[in-house]
Design brief:
alpha/beta, seven-stranded parallel β-sheet, 17% strand
Length: 242
């Protein structure tokens, strides 16, 4: 019998790694990221490591993604019934510093790769197995920061796609977004300046979050307890969006 797997991008670190660790209690996982050694580390931290597969792929290289993923599914004789898109990249650039190449890389990773993966998982190679999609978006999609237009607009685009897909794919497939606020133990937070972190900390009534807070939300959205939830942008942000 063909095994069902949860496909998880951005699995090499941060939110993606913590989601993998927690979700490995319940599901077989395909761990996707561009750094093979980091993926191996994540796999070793998961429960029942032998039950999980690694799909090494740079999601910014969008032109080759469809073929790579199709071949992976066929070669491993698996189907994907759940998809969690944690992959994301950020580059703080003001409007005057707009650069098309940087924009393309951010949108490829944050938005277009998710669209391409959904396309592949809706094809016959996946045998109509897909049931649940969760995108890790950002509080930035609804609450912008100065000098962060590329990341902010990419996450807003991801949420718009989510809402459209929730209608298009219902009732068989549920689609939702999680909007994390500032998660202090992630590479994206580490890429910002301490001055910026200090500036926004006061906006969080419950303080900054941890990767476990987002993994808990993902675990809920993949469970039967959320069976009547679709098309929603769920903020997990310590009250920053109040």
């Amino acid at each position: 019998m063909t095994k069902e797997y949860l496909f998880l991008t951005g699995a090499s670190s941060g939110i993606g790694r913590q989601c993998a660790i927690q979700l490995s209690q319940y599901y077989n996982l395909v761990l996707c990221a561009r750094r093979i050694e980091k993926l191996k580390e994540t796999k070793s931290l998961c429960q029942n490591p032998d039950n999980h597969l690694i799909f090494e792929c740079d999601l910014s290289e969008i032109s080759s993604l469809e073929e790579k993923l199709n071949n992976f599914l066929i070669n491993n004789d698996i189907v994907i019934d759940k998809f969690l898109h944690c992959a994301g990249t950020l580059n703080l650039i003001g409007a005057k510093g707009f650069d098309l190449d940087i924009c393309q890389r951010i949108y490829n990773t944050n938005v277009f790769s998710a669209m391409m993966i959904v396309k592949v998982l809706l094809k016959k190679n996946n045998k109509k197995a897909l049931k649940n999609i969760v995108f890790i978006s950002s509080l930035n999609s609804i609450k912008a920061d100065k000098g962060n237009s590329l990341y902010t607009s990419s996450k807003a685009a991801l949420d718009g796609y989510m809402r459209s897909m929730a209608k298009e794919l219902a009732p068989k497939i549920r689609v939702n977004s999680i909007l994390p606020g500032a998660i202090i133990d992630t590479a994206i937070c580490a890429a910002t300046t301490q001055e910026f972190i200090n500036e926004i900390e006061k906006e969080y009534p419950l303080g900054f979050g941890k990767v476990q807070d987002i993994a808990n939300a993902a675990e809920f959205l993949f469970s039967d307890k959320s069976s009547w939830i679709t098309g929603q942008k769920i903020s997990v942000d310590g009250g920053a969006s109040i």
